[in-house]
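Exercise 7b. Backbone tokens:
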């Protein structure tokens, strides 16, 4: 689960997580749910075989995994315990990646499904994402990745002019990011963004304020089958957060 509903991590994660639980149970899987927010649909008893209302942290999830492995062993039931982090928002992704980096998943022989660690890294790491877009022939704004204020100032000098966009890595919904119109705002946002990024990394990007903004919701499987689930047009131009803009779907 995604935990409490906050800006950038809203009720759509409860809905998608609930649908995932239903789909997994229909396929005959035993579902163990972890969510720190009891005021959700997905924590209703009918959606999981076992529900933990516990903090979504690496330490807590590790204890739950160990307990479930012991339960499987004691019951003599076959099967394998796997981790599905992609329907719990940024909280679940960050927790899963922490367990991966610390070696817990490898040590306990837990596989990540939905998206593996490499795929999550490519989507969350600003430089890896930029490189992936360039490899498939998509144009991206001029940008650079910084882990210190000095590196960020150097990138700003290379881009050449304000305003500049700041995007911290491993955050969702614009958390810690923003638009800097001068050097003072830029330095303040960089410090704030580096503090909020779990990997102390921000992307400094040229501004595309005023451009028309469209969103495409795409699902793709490992066989490279793609389908556009929804196309969305923002009423306001880029520079206005999509959460503050009127949107029209389909375009």
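Sequence design result:
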């Amino acid at each position: 689960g995604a935990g409490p509903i906050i800006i950038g991590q809203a009720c759509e994660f409860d809905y998608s997580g609930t649908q995932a639980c239903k789909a997994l149970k229909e396929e005959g899987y035993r579902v163990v749910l972890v969510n720190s927010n009891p005021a959700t649909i997905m924590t209703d008893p009918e959606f999981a075989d076992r529900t933990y209302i516990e903090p979504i942290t690496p330490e807590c999830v590790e204890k739950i995994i160990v307990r479930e492995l012991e339960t499987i062993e004691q019951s003599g039931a076959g099967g394998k315990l796997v981790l599905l982090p992609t329907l719990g928002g940024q909280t679940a992704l960050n927790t899963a990646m922490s367990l991966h980096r610390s070696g817990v998943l490898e040590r306990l022989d837990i596989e990540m499904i939905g998206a593996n660690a490499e795929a999550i890294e490519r989507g969350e790491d600003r430089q890896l994402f930029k490189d992936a877009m360039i490899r498939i022939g998509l144009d991206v704004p001029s940008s650079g990745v910084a882990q210190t204020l000095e590196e960020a100032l150097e990138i700003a000098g290379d881009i050449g002019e304000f305003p500049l966009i700041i995007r911290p890595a491993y955050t969702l919904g614009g958390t810690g990011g923003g638009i800097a119109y001068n050097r003072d705002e830029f330095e303040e946002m960089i410090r704030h963004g580096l503090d909020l990024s779990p990997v102390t990394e921000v992307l400094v990007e040229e501004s595309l304020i005023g451009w028309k903004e469209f969103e495409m919701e795409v699902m793709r499987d490992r066989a490279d089958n793609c389908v556009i689930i929804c196309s969305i047009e923002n009423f306001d131009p880029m520079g206005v957060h999509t959460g503050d803009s009127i949107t029209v779907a389909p375009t």
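Instructor comment: The longest helix spans residues 58-75. The mean pLDDT is 89.
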